[in-house]
Amino acid sequence: MYQLKVREHFDAAHQLDGYKGKCHELHGHRWEVIVTLEGDTLDDINMLIDFKIVKDTLKNGFDTYLDHHYLNETLKVGNPTAEYVAEWLFVYLQRTFGSLNIVSVEVFESPDCSVTYSEVENEC
Predict the structure, then answer these.
(1) CATH number of the domain where residue 27 is located
(2) What is the pTM of this model?
(3) How many CB atoms lie within 10 A of CB 77?
(4) What element of type H or E holds 56?
(5) Over 70: is that where the pLDDT of 57 sits?
(6) What is the percent of the chain where pLDDT is above 90?
(7) At what angle do helices 82-96 and 51-61 cross, to 10 degrees?
(8) Percentages helix, strand, coil for the chain, rounded to the nearest 5?
(9) pLDDT (tens digit per residue) in 84-118
């Protein structure tokens, strides 16, 4: 099994309604994103997928919905937390890379704080 990771970033603003603290106010972050994809088959030039394809797909999603946007409006949710952004990106990438398994999306709101979203199958 092969795992491929790509790291990118975007800048965006949000605010958290109902939050008791500074994040209740409108503020921005440089959001760092690490995407992990997985597959067991390489293509005819021995790649799982070209890094550039993953980066371009992320950039397209960032430019359309995230980068320099007000996330409360573009994601159409009251509280676009890091958790929500990670899940949103996961679903966005799943739609794009149907043949590859999106293992996880990690989103950093700051260099020291991140959240990871993955879909783990329950073995029950």
Answers:
(1) 3.30.479.10
(2) 0.91
(3) 14
(4) helix 51-61
(5) yes
(6) 88
(7) 120
(8) 30, 35, 35
(9) 999 999 999 999 887 789 999 999 999 999 999 99
Confirm whether 105 is domain-assigned.
yes
Residue 66's identity, in one-letter code, is L
Name the token pair of 11: 């800048």
The number of angstroms, rounded, from the C-alpha of 71 to the middle of its chain's C-alpha atoms is 13
Q: Which two tokens stand for residue 89?
A: 């990106």
Tell me which residue of 3, 23, 2, 21 sits closest to 104, measured CA to CA: 3
Q: Which two tokens stand for residue 79?
A: 């509280």
What is d(CA 10, CA 5) in angstroms, rounded to the nearest whole number? 17
Give the chain's domain count: 1
Rounded to 5 degrees, what are φ and ψ at 52? Answer: -60, -40
The residue range of the domain holding 89 is 2-40+52-117
* Spatial distance between the Cα atoms of 8 and 29, rounded to a whole number of angstroms: 14
Q: For residues 15-22, give the mean pLDDT.
A: 93
In one letter, which amino acid is 106? E
d(CA 111, CA 30): 9
The residues, any chain, with a CB within 8 Å of residue 71's CB and separated by 6 or more, are 12, 13, 14, 77, 80, 85
